[in-house]
Amino acid sequence: MLIGLRGVGKTVLLNRLLHLAEERHLRAHLIESPEDRPLPQLLLPALRKVLLDLDRMATVSAVVRRGLRVFIGFARSIKVRHGDLEVGLDLGAEHGVADSGDLESDLPELLVAVGEAAKARGTAVVLLIDEMQYVREIELSALIMGVHKISQRQLPLLLVGAGLPQLVGNMGRSKSYSERLFDFPNIGPLAHDDAFFAIREPIVKEGERIADAAVELIVDASQGYPYFLQTWGYHAWNEARRSPIAQRDVEAARRPVLDNLDESFFRVRFDRLTPAEKRYLGAMAELGPGPHRSGRVAEAIGVKVQSAAPTRNSLIRKGMIYNPSHGDTAFTVPMFDEFMKQQMPAM
Question: pTM for the complete prediction?
C-alpha cells in the first residue's frame, strides 16, 4: 500500500506507523527522500540493517545469507558508497543476481531477496518512505516493479510511501499498472472535530482547561493544518496566565504565531525559490488562496502559458504547488499566499 498525502501531518502519521510496526517486532525503517539523493543510496543503509538483524536471529538461514550476498552485489553494481558498507558483509556477492547495473532489474531482485529472508525468519519488513514525490522516475519505476514482484510472490515486505499529490501522477507515468497495485488515500487538513480534539485533549491531560470559543478560534485560524495547530496551541498556552485559556489569550498569540511561521515554516520554502518562481507565486498570491487556472496565473505575470510551464513544473517538483485538477494550480500549504504578499515589496 502506498499513501499519498497532501503534505498534512504526514510525518506524524509515518512515525506512528513506524512505532506500531516496531511494537509488533517487525523490521521497520523510516526513510526520507530529499531532492538531491538517489533512492538506492537511501535504501541501502536500511536494507543492510534489516538483513544483518535477520542474520543475528537464533538460527542460521541460507536464505538470509543469500539475501546478504544479493545486497553486496547490488551495492557494488550501482557503485554506492555508504560509510562502513563492507563491515560484517564479507560473504562475497551472489553473482548474477541484482548486479547487472540496471536498476529496474536489480532493485526488484534485491527486494525479493529481502522479502524471502524475512519470510525465512517468520517476520516482516516495513519500509516507510517520506517525500516520495522527489524520487526520480527511473527509481520509482524500479521500486514499483519490486513491490509488484513482492506482491506476486506474497512475501512479507510492505511499502508505505508519503508525498504530495503529484506523486500519483508520477507513479502512473512510471508504470501504468501502479494504480492497480497501490492504494492512494488522500489525507488533507484535519476535520473540525479532530482539530478541536487535537487542541483540547493535551491541555485537559495536563489538568488545565481551554474555552470552547478559544479552541474554535485556533481551529479556524489554522485551517486544520496540523503544524499550524501545534504552533497556535504552543503560543496560546504561553500567553495564558490562568486556566481556562481564553479567547483573548489566543488573540494575543496571533502575532507570535504569525512571526514564527514567517521566520521558519514559510521562510524555508521562500528561500528555495528562484526569482522566476517567486514572481509566479507572487502572481498566484495576488489572485487569492486558489486554486487558480494556470492560464490566469500566466496572464498575471504577462507571459504565455507555454512560457510559464517550466517555472510551474519546477514549483511542483519543489512541492510548493500542486494540481488539484487538470489545469488548476494551488498552494500545498495554507496561508502561503498571505506570506507571499508580505514579501512582494522586497522582490
Answer: 0.73
